[in-house]
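Record format v2
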Amino acid sequence: GAGVSQSPSNKVTEKGKDVELRCDPISGHTALYWYRQSLGQGLEFLIYFQGNSAPDKSGLPSDRFSAERTGGSVSTLTIQRTQQEDSAVYLCASSPSLGENIQYFGAGTRLSVL
Amino acid sequence: GEDVEQSLFLSVREGDSSVINCTYTDSSSTYLYWYKQEPGAGLQLLTYIFSNMDMKQDQRLTVLLNKKDKHLSLRIADTQTGDSAIYFCAENPDYKLSFGAGTTVTVRA
């Protein structure tokens, strides 16, 4: 696609429910990144993929968070048993490679946990 | 505390130049970046500079890099109302970007 696409753009859920956030990177980009933007914490790095592999998961806030990438393209960020502190904008970015680290961002998914 | 620091607010008159400053900590960053975020939108890559460059100009945007002082600046010439947004400075000591808190630029008539 022309840019990084994220869906849904907005998600409202109840505390305790699971949510899945989707990211479709720019075609041909091998590296994909997830960040979270919240009022109290600013922009935080969560996880990155090179191809389908996620070498470093240390940025994930808790074991309720997981992510996968299939076919070297679409990625899904899953949050289980959501809590109110998970409310934030989740941003996805992609870059041509890890070495050519010019990251282009999607519009984000705004998650609200009630 | 944050590794990348920026002032939080800047108010500028329409038509004047805006200068946004940033200091970073990691001298191993290959690139340094400026992103723009408008209300309700994602991050738009405005420009970036290689760490071995001192200056980069792109239309109304001028980026200056002082590696000795780890200081990065973004100058926007002839600031317009459409330039009102939050501007983020970022470094990449490794694969991930490390962002500043963002500078909110308000353009007044």
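Chain B has no helices and eleven strands.
The first strand of chain B starts at residue 5 and ends at 6.
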